[in-house]
Amino acid sequence: AVTLLRTQEKTETDQYAGLVNELSRLRFERGRRLFNSACYVEAEAEYSEAVELQPHIALFVHNRGEARLHLLNFVGAYYDFKKATELDPALDCAKDRFDWIKGKVNPQAPQHPRGLKVQLIQEEKSRSLSMSDGYGLDLQTEKFLGELLQGESSADNSGER
């Protein structure tokens, strides 16, 4: 009887895991379609649902970062690209975006990411980095990212000693 219960529990657990996988995949695919239709707010919401269901999948986190980047949510995108890079260091597109966001604060870092919409890049080139009128990085975001990056580089340097 105990073996039968354990088998039944395992089967139910497997079914639940299968449903979670399927639902997260559907959310991800819906997010991808919305993103490709330039519906970035809705795409971010769908990607967020997929990430909530399976936070260990780097591509889900990366794509949410892409949506956030197109919404000019640099802080949210920063964390998503950083997390995606940690989850899968071989995911070059996440590393490219992460490096680019760091470059918004550090001019020596790599510049525009590959694949970002040309119009957004052109608009960004015409704006000052510290404009506070809702374009580009506002002063508060710029300061936050600068402090965050400075703290990370200090932690990296102290770990190497």
Assembly type of the shown chains?
single chain
**pLDDT under 50 segments (min length 5)?**
125-136
* Structural domain count: 1
**CATH level-1 class:** Mainly Alpha
Q: Please trace the helix and strand order, writing H or E for each element.
A: HHHHHHH
Q: Would you tell me the structural class of the helices and strands? A: mainly alpha
CATH topology: Serine Threonine Protein Phosphatase 5, Tetratricopeptide repeat
- Shape assignment: globular
CATH architecture: Alpha Horseshoe
Full CATH superfamily name = Tetratricopeptide repeat domain
Number of helices: 7
Largest sheet: none
Helix percent band = over 70%
Radius of gyration: 19 Å
Strand content: under 5%
Average pLDDT reading: 76
Straight-line distance between termini: 59 Å
Number of strands: 0
